[in-house]
Amino acid sequence: YNITQLRKALLGENIVIHLENRTINLSFEHFSSDMTIKQSIREIQNYSRNPFFHSMVETILQQISRTLTKDFNLSSSNLTAEGCIVLISLDSDNATLAVEQAIDDIVERQQPEHVTFSTIGNQLVTDEILEASNESMQILMPIAMLMVIIVLLIVYRSFIDAGISLLALAFSIIWMYGFGVAMGFDFNPMTTAVPILLIGLGIDYGIHLTMRYREEAGRDKTERVHITIQTVGVALLLATLTAMIAFLSNLISPIQVLQEFGMLCAFGILSAFVTMTLFVPAVQQLRKKQRSEKPENGAVRRAKQAVYKIVEIGAAAAEKMPAVVIIVAVIATAFSGYAATQLETKFDMDSFLPDDLDITQDIKYLMSHFEFSGGEASSSYILVQGAITSPSVFAQLNATIDNVADDVGVVMVNGRPDVTSIATVMHEYARQGSNPAFSARYQACFTGPYTPKENASAADIEMLYDMLYQGNRQQATTVLNKNGSYDGTLLRIATRTDLGKQEANTLYDQLREDASAITGYETKATGDSIVNVVVEETLNEGQTQSLIITILVSFVILTVIFYLRDTSIMLGLITAVPIIFCVGWILGAMFFMGLSLNVMTITIASLTVGLGVTYGIHISHRFVEEVQQRGIGEAAHRTVRHTGISLFGAAATTIVGFGLLSFSLMPPLQQFGQITALTILFAFISSVLVLPSFLILWARRKYGDATPQHRNNS
Fold it and tell me: 219 and which of 223, 227, 313, 616 could share a cystine (Cβ 3.0–4.6 Å)?
């Protein structure tokens, strides 16, 4: 029925339907008792005995069933239902969120006894996600800053040094937000995690710069800064480049939120590098009184000794049995890599909703209790683009509808696929008789339900389209596209929503094959379940491409830089290899934790390389510096002892920052925080426990038994 007819029905007025050879008068009354409603449904069922009404009645009963919960059974003697759903179609041209909120306000005021009303809408869900995201960040940002301050005070034991690093970090976060606004990005649940990411990663730069500056105590301030920048600064530059590559690799993803996330993170990391390397050394030089080393108290000394013992395990093992360390790492990686192949990719924006929100519970109830959302009301589509006013298009549409009958998951009604098309819409509109002029024109142009007569012209079809648009625009726009002329039509195919991934893939292939039979037109297949599968495949492909790009570019940059600086091609490759192990470790850990790859965690593989390799860069860079002056074993011990303590502080702040995301209100952010924190831990472990074995083998092969003096001369 159109809006006018619906209004009359609700007001209890009569509706007159003119058919080809008869006129039907419909009268409506308002009933209040539950028993009367049951009797009304039984009366409708009785009409199905009449062959003339059978098809129409079956369709009506099916629609009634879909608006009621699954416990409703037409065959039962006692018709009952736990709940019902009212569908409201909105004009997409209007402010949909405002309309949905207005409807929600009305529903909230209508809460009768023993009945619960709730509202679900796409824009309401999106708004709830954003609100939950913002609320999470408002809680987590201050906590993250507080935790980082505590870690910095433990590492620095100086309020001034901690304040300098935090101020530079604040600059980088402000720059990042300014960049996002200038680029016109819409801040979403993914981008709200960027400040936490910068707090965890950006502060690392300040720690490395400050700790190396302190190592050069006793020198002139200017000389200390120069040495710090020439040593740690180079390592930080490499770390910045590899991290930016990891984030920018998301640009190859067709998903816009991933692209924006990558760009914001990359710019934020660059901002942190610039502010830290310029601001921190500059302020240190401006300080009139340099910080004098305070004697360490017992607790601090014991804590540092504990860290030293941990990080020196890698150097000790590397010096005695490097091959064994590498073999163990390879075995662990192979085992984790196999587990990683079992990971699933899932795409569901509703998963961003916190479990304790009312709308989340409403969605779960809808999915589990209604056939509308959980059984047979999902849709797949075939889009046909071209001159669809041609009468010949109807024969091809009819053939395509017949072809989808044996496709996976297609709902059948009375032996035919449940498909809505321009042909079915026009036929039903003409049969209703609410527009006699349209019905007469339709009868003049069509010989059967969906087949134009031989003498029907494109002008005749276009006139029918115009009349349909004018008389029943709501139905017309669901199957027709009018852009000046009629250039597109849609086949809406009812399918089950409980299709598995393999079934959805099969359906997608079958629909594309069905659509390809429509010649002379451009066709595309899509659908509710199909879109999810395609997005999941796209995410997987994007992850693979992003990982490959990150690894290759990181290898190239590290190889070139280490070759130019240390005339060694192998050193760059060696630095990155242990981080490749981390990729297998983290993906395997996700499998054992029962997690899946989603729109947030899909970036974790490339991030593992981009972020984790920074730890390896600091170790390799310092080892090369030490091995020029000392024996190979001693160089390894000094490297992990001095650089390892800085890496420990950097890893601790990063883990704290990302770990706090575990307390986010949104499940995907919780998982992203947990996995990224674990990634940093694995990167730290591989750098201080595995990488020294590679470096010692490299140094032994390069230098042999040569003394440090001979190495410098070589």
Answer: 223
Structural domain count, the chain: 3
Average pLDDT of span 651-657 = 81
The confidence score (pLDDT) of residue 263 equals 92
* Of 709, 665, 658, 702, nearest in space to 684 by CA: 658
**Contact call for residues 493 and 379 (beta carbons, < 8 A):** yes
- Residues 404 and 342 reside in one and the same domain: no
- Matching residue, tokens 């910080």: 291
pLDDT of res. 327: 94
> Could you tell me which residues are beta bridge partners of residue 16?
25
**Same domain for 383 and 286?**
no
The tally of CA atoms less than 13 A away on the side-chain side of residue 348 is 13
- The answer to whether residues 638 and 492 belong to one domain is no
Q: Are 271 and 384 members of one domain?
A: no
Q: What is the pLDDT of residue 178?
A: 94
Q: CA-CA distance, 227 to 230, in Å (whole number)?
A: 5
Query: Do 685 and 632 belong to one domain?
Result: yes
Residue with the bigger pLDDT between 206 and 601: it is 206
What amino acid occupies position 524? K
419: β partners? 493
The answer to whether 525 and 515 are in contact (CB under 8 A) is yes
Separation between Cα atoms, residue 413 and residue 331, nearest integer Å:
56
For residues 413 and 380, state if they share a domain. Answer: yes
Could you tell me the two tokens for 668? 């995907």
Same-domain check for residues 8 and 135: no
Q: Please give the Cα distance from 473 to 469 (Å, whole number).
A: 4
Distances (CA, A) of 218 to 292, 293, 646: 10, 11, 20
Taking a C-beta distance cutoff of 8 angstroms, is the pair 188, 130 a contact?
yes
pLDDT in tens, 262-298: 899 899 999 999 999 989 888 888 876 555 555 555 6
Q: Which of 334, 326, 329, 230 lies closest to 695 in space, CA to CA?
A: 326
Token pair for residue 337?
A: 């890599």
pTM assigned to the model: 0.68
One-letter amino acid at 298 equals G
pLDDT score of 97 more than 50: yes
197-222 pLDDT, tens digit each: 888 778 888 888 888 888 777 787 88
Establish if 449 belongs to a structural domain: yes
In a domain, 220, yes or no: yes
Write out the residue range of the structural domain in which residue 12 sits. 1-30
Token representation of residue 54: 């059978």
Q: Does residue 200 lie within any of the structural domains?
A: yes
